[in-house]
Amino acid sequence: MRILKFLASVCLLAVMTGAARSGPWELEESVSTAGLRGIHSLGNGIVWASGAGGTVRRSEDTGYLWQTCTIPPDANKLDFRSIWAWDEKNALALSSGPGDQSRLYRTTDGCSSWKLLLTNPDSGGFWDGLLFLDQRHGVIYGDPSPAPGRTNHMRFSLLVTDDGGETWAPAADPEPLPGESIFAASNSAMTANGGEIWLGTSKARVLRTRNLTDWQSAQTPLASGNDSSGVFSLAFRDQKHGVAVGGDYRKPKEATGTAAYTSDGGKHWSAPRKPPHGYRSAVAWDEKDRAWVTVGTNGSDVSYDDGATWQWLDSGNWNALSLPWAVGPNGQIGKLGMLPAPAAAGTAASR
Known about the structure:
Elements: H1 2-17, E1 21-22, E2 25-27, E3 36-43, E4 46-51, E5 56-59, E6 67-68, E7 80-85, E8 91-95, E9 103-107, E10 115-119, E11 127-132, E12 138-147, E13 150-161, E14 169-170, E15 190-193, E16 196-200, E17 205-209, E18 216-219, E19 229-236, E20 242-248, E21 259-262, E22 282-286, E23 291-296, E24 299-303, E25 311-314, E26 320-322, E27 325-327, E28 333-336
Antiparallel strand pairs: 1-2, 2-28, 3-4, 4-5, 5-6, 7-8, 8-9, 9-10, 11-12, 12-13, 13-14, 15-16, 16-17, 17-18, 19-20, 20-21, 22-23, 23-24, 24-25, 26-27, 27-28
């Protein structure tokens, strides 16, 4: 009954405001038709988004207006899967693709102009995402490539910076399993909290480290076994409690193996009693509502019990999260509004 009242209130609000909605998501006018996969919300009304065709968008007024940014040099065919910003002026955009299609650009003037900082020198490499631990220390993470001087010895590709992204150097890359890779679906296959760093892989593993030198591995119950399944996104609300989501993107409606949760910092992972209702590419902790939100190509879900059970939010098409924002194909940007109350015990928690 609470969910029905919630949906009714959402529909009434949409009629009153004239805003298009998908469940609790208010759909924004991004002035773009590009597939969007990068999103970074900074608070105080500032949010950046990025995607295919060299697309970068920026808002300084909580999404009321979205600025069309200048396309970085020679980037009109690049896919910016990652955007990382510090304020309304300074941001980094990372493109994902084979070889030199993986590049890193910087703007210091609110995206009026861009400087190319780095191009992947490995013709067989592929950068998947960008994570900053603070304003100076960051990581670019990518798919396995041969270790220097050892063509038959594969290592995940990790580059680190200690000067805010101006210069980068190789890190001690963890060793992959045969056929293992990282997904570039939402710039959230790597996450950090309290000095700990976690990385999810296509073999449904979560690797963890404190120093980017010594890595430990844990297996999750997420779907794996082919190149379209595994861990797509990770988030931790503190050093102990985290959620991993994924599944098989070629089977978007398959709910089995789409999420896992941990309460010991990622040493052990458990399958939820009631999983999200399909493949999920991004997950984030909503501090305001004390809830986890996850999105994918067939909708979104929420969990109020640290990932043990999930309930349906909408059936939209989403790629990435930086709450309260989500982005998807065809320039879609949504802002999260009121979440439904937790489903009562003994009632359906998912659609």
